[in-house]
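I had to read the description of the data format several times before I understood it. For illustration, here is how one protein appears when written out as sequence plus structure tokens:
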Amino acid sequence: MDVILQSCVPKRTLDKVMFVYMLLLVHNVVFYLCYIVLPWRRDTLGTSDLTVYLCKAWILFLYVNIIGGIWKVMLVSTTTRGVILPSTLKPGWFYCYHCETNAPPRSFHCGICNICVLKRDHHCIYTGRCIGYYNYRFYLTLLMYCLLLAIFTSSISLSLAWEMLGEFSAYNLAGFVFPLVMFVVGVFDFYKTYVVLISFVCTLFSLMLSGLAIWHTKHVRHNMTAHERLQGNQSYDLGLTENLRQIFGQKWRVSWISPFISSPLPGGGLEFPTKESYESPKDL
């Protein structure tokens, strides 16, 4: 167990900082919702107990999927480590001078992880892992559930934050955007700073994660990586249904519900069907 935990710890300082930041933020948001926002909405706005219980169940569902997604992204290896690679250079393969071995198509060497990554998309600083063939599904669902948590938090907590700030004005808007500054200069107390800060951060993350989700939508739609997108390469676009299967696995219709649902991918990350070579089951 210790070996597994040590292997999951991000190696780069920036990755460690962002990983800790993400964990602290997720847990603070859950605490903020359950122990500050929902009780306030029940006592002040008259929200029913049933609605509060349903909100808490939704928060628990999001929390389990976010923590599970983080764990899966970090635990599931998508590198060439432990993969038997051919000694002869096959068509479409290339030689990696860093790893001193042949590397399959769509893989790239990550200077941070110091190894080739199968179907590499990018290096995620929040998990300290490269996102590639085996963990892209978990990254996408992690992104989706983080976005849902951010939107949910922002939507039900902004009224509390602005009740504490007062009527809308340039001064109060500055307080909403810079609550830590207001705390340092003595304008906000700790409680007000905490409420406004979490609401602002979740609103900001709602916008940021929405943009990131839109960016990855094209990757899913055309079964491409970030590098292939920059090149305009859509050679692996097999149609929406097959593209979803290539990314989310055999159980692609339900695998997005939870990272703990087993959904084997259709290949081994070494060879990929192209648009020209792929034959749809309907055509067979």
